[in-house]
Amino acid sequence: MIDLGGFPILSAIVFGPLIGAVVLAILPRENKVLLRRVALLISLIVFGLSLLLVIAFKPGTDGFQFQERASWIPAFGINYHLGVDGISLILVVLTTTLTWISILASFSPIHDRVKEYMISFLVLEVGMLGVFLALDLFLFYIFWEVVLVPMYLIIGIWGGPNRIYATIKFVLYTLIGSLLMLVAILATAFSYQAATGTWTGAFDYLTLRGFGFDGTLQVLAFLAFFLAFAIKVPMWPFHTWLPDAHVEAPTAGSVILAGVLLKLGGYGFIRFALPLFPQAAQQLAGLIIVLSLIAIIYGAIVAMVQPDLKKLVAYSSVSHMGFVTLGIFIFQQQGMQGAILQMVNHGVITGALFLCVGVVYERTHDRTIAKMGGLAGRTPVYAMLFGFFMLASLGLPGLSGFVGEFLVFLGTFAISPIAALIATFVIIIGAAYLMWMYQRVVFGELSEFLASLGHHLTDITRVELLTLTPLVALTLLFGLFPGLVLDLVSHPVDQILAGLGHGAAVAVGR
Amino acid sequence: MTGNEWLAIAPFLAIVGLAILTVIIDIIWPDHDELIGTVAVLGVLTAMALTVVAGPLPGPIGALPSSGQEIFGGVYVRDGLTSFLDLIFMSIALLTLLFAPDYLRPRGLPMGEFSATLLFAISGAMLLGAARDLLILFLGLELMVLPGYMLAGYAKRDGLSTEGAIKYFLLGSFSSAIFLFGLAFTFGYLGTTRIAEIGKALATYASGEQVGHTLPAALVMGLAFLTTGVAFKIAAVPFHYWTPDAYQGSPTPVTGYLSVGPKVGAFALILRLFVEALGPLRGDWVIFIGILAVLTMTLGNLSALGQDNVKRMLAYSSIAHTGYILLGLAVYAGASDPHVQETGLQAVLFYSATYAFMNLGAFACVAALQRRPGVTSQIASFAGLGRRAPLLGALMTLFLLSLTGIPPTAGFFGKALILLSAVQAGGWLAVLAVIMMLNAAAAAFYYLRIVVFMYMRDAPANAREVTVGAFTKVGLALAAIGTIAIGLVPPITTVVYDAALKAAAALMRA
To answer: Whole-prediction pTM value?
Structure first.
């Protein structure tokens, strides 16, 4: 335990990458090596700061720590207000981890416009971290939109052949959701102002959290928030942008997209939609659970028939993120803890799977499953790592993917055994599509296509190994010691459930 | 006249005097474009300083009393609204003067007449913002639009420019006649041209009215003609048909001016006429403004979607922005709470200020690109601009993001304020707020299309280097600073916000 004194660590974490982006903007564009190294250095510094935050954080206490507050637009009571609790803490660390890994993973694939690429990545990190740390709704919205532009550029400039279609689809989907969320944010703020006669606190999360909004407003505002978050997660039927975006994005873009951007939606539900509009959340929970179950099944079935490696992983994300929304809206302690754990695990594992796909793509410039085969013979180390993450993704006990899903099942079972039954059934499909894919890519004779590459088909490089190893460690760590995460999130989860009137839910285990 | 009275009219006299001075300089030293440009820019800056000295602006700024200073027996007033609008108009003049030389000189178009004509037009707009009498109002209107026709046809050997100018002239004078007709009816019924007296007479009339009253036929006619005339001037749908041709045909810096100068000028007219004089009848005209707002923003955006010419696209987009501003006016007219009414007016003014910077900035980028004669304003001209001229591309992106309303740019804060006022007003106005946000999402599509061309398409093989002159550089810097600072730098946000509030308060007091 260390004392940080008055150091504004949260601002340092959020705006560290921005300072880095400014530094990159000054550096000469010709010196690509320098640009890459500086970007990596900055992301590592931010990662270090987030680890410092972990050490200084006092787990097991209620409320937000390291709060920073400054008046920003006093006329409407809008503040610059940051704070961290267990839930945001692990998501911040997930973000800082995946960012430096993504930047490192971009060293060899990205040759063109390195400067703009690295700046985009660092600005993207600002937005993501800001979303996880903002405690003022207006500030939250701003960070939420800040995420949009760099991702738009990353997919649109450095993406695949159909990148422009994919990136515009991504932006329009996200924007429609978020703009309606802005209307809802302003409506709740005004409703608060009308009821209390003051703008002070009208955008403040901590003030609004306990404020009972009028029933109709709750439903309308919840629907607007829901749309924004459901598109981001993405929930069926708002998921159609995801496969396009994933397929066209560069590898590192896919890693961040799956690893962090999808988590923004889940985080939004937990942090904002539930505590602000508890009644509406309860009224609509049934519907959302049904949508989650559809997403879980639909994502898995569609993943099974995908001919493209990236698309397969993308659809598996729809399925896996369905577990997250299921766990959240079942309103049960284990379920919600499992949902948060699942977010972290999905970020690590799916991020790693996209890196693995990227490794193949780097060598073959192809991702068609049918053209692959027999990688195990030529690239044994790679095949082993790929297999490791494949098993983690399908939920092998001992690896992290298992624990999150298991807790979600447990929570769901306590509330609705039928829903749990349906969700469990999907585990089988999940095992099927992942193992079948792995078998076709890795086992058997070396395919003609791969053989034609000759000596270009090398095993994993040192840099690639460097990007995957930390994720192996995290997968094992969270698989064997899920308590590391659960201890952090149990207090906030209890508090959120208490706000929903589900405080004394059935306690299974723990 | 007393000192304060001189001070009240000083900015107006300064601009008129400057216009005459540029004519004289042009006669004595013909073809000294840089001299004229420098004198005009410095002159406008002086006039801006005079406006700040005169005030009344927020806080301690300005020598004149907060309640405003009337002169000439009350037909001309300098209050918070006048000074706020004057500063917008002069910023528009300043930026246009800075952007013009790069475009005009290569085409052999003289700067002397351009400066003089532009400054006369601006003086007309300034007169509109200060008028307290219907005759002065009409005088200001004509003084603003007549030089506008000349500017539109400034490239007189260019067929498109001439065609646009003739269309603009015919419909412009037509609408002026309709407007004058409306003034005649109003005068005929009420027997006075003084705005304050009209307001008073209508207020007594409105307060003494019975439920289910009918307006006298003369006032109905007057209101109908005035609304139609004004709708033409601001290019509200369905009175917008002249805009795309006039905008596409005009020399690009003129288009930039036309898209903000006469538009904000016409809104000044609306504020003085519809709010101050016809405010008591707002219950009768609000519905028309509401319908105009929806039609204008929706059709403007839908038409912009299919455009391949950037000037034409921005012309349609400026129609959409008119719709957003009209929503603020509808909030004034439709809300029952005076504070909300005031916020609506404040939103109109704040948005106008942000719109002036971002829209002029966008047109300046088009003009800079077209510096070399022969470069068209087709969207294909933007291909690869992000690589050919990185700074210009980045600035254009900034202006486009601001026009889209992405935080943290000024455009976002403008939209947020309109949105907030509409949500506060509640009821059908809140529905309009949702329509506005859906429109903003649709608009993202065509704004980002330009970004796609700049960053995600390669430049054609024969693309030439893009160079930017010193004047344009200064202008672009100012527009960019305005677009960023009004949103992101709290003291500046506050000043603009308070100034708009003071201007709105001046209107509400009347």
So the answer is: 0.88
